[in-house]
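Deliverable D4.2, example record:
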Amino acid sequence: MASEGDSPAMRNFKFQRIIAAVGALLMLGKFLAYFLTNSVAILTDALESIVNVAAGIIGLYALYLTMQPADSSHPYGHGKVELISSSVEGSMIIIAGAMIVLESVLRFLSGDYTLRSLDLGLLIVAVAAAANFAMGYTAIRMGRSSNSVALEASGRHLCTDTYSSVGILIGLGLVLLLSHLGFDAYWIDPLMALVFGFLIVITGIRVLFRSMNGIMDGADEEIIKQVTRCVNHIRKPEILDVHHLRVNRYGASVHVDAHMTVPGDLTVKEAESFVNEFREEVTEALGGEVDITFMAEPCNSSHCRHCSRECDHRQAEFTGRRILGTQYVTRGDRRNHRHHRE
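Output generated by the structure prediction step:
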């Protein structure tokens, strides 16, 4: 699938190509199963496959853009296109779910429950479900390991499609069994489609909300916690305080900026060495490409209680270093924070 020398972005791109190609084949298979069976539940699966194919193509283009380097027009790179891709996919999932609900209601109103060749149709759906789950599970793992929102969204969509397929297989299998026993249970078909249509709409809403939160630079609490742990781990006695911490993720790239309070007699070169150590620590913790900007600020008399350095400007005795929590480092006005001691 991909050589070991490929970058994570290239591996994601190659796998997304496989998702798009296989998705097209599975879509054709599901529509064939629908025409063979006249099952609205299988039509549900087929309609969602259209979304899979369209989303796969959009995700492919998004991953291609994320591999492009930063330029003068996009100084932070092109990683945010993954969020746009994910939001489009979420919207398409919602539309597909709404179409499924509408078709189920129309089938109920018409009273047309005629089904045929269910055994062959169920076999096609089962094969498609197994292929979808294998691709979806792999896509989620690759997306998480490389911080690719687009690939993870594709994987979640494929897994959701698989769960829908399994439910359809169980429901239509029950219909087939009851029909062999002489019972008329064909009404189960549109009922299942209605239930799964609503579940698909809910999934689309979740994908859309997550994407919009990323586009609006919503705080990623997990990344902030990791960065804060790095701050406390590499802190030298000379780093008295860190505040105004901001973390943004653009695809696989993480951008960190903050204010760092240091003794006033510290040289620029010494302050830069602390930043370099911090950059290495964060890069190891988060992986990918890390861009860090720290603005050094000179200390004042309020920091003396938390500074162990000997200097001629001390105005209070050292009482202990301050532990920097996530709420502390992300707040702008450090005067309103509660002081903690180690």
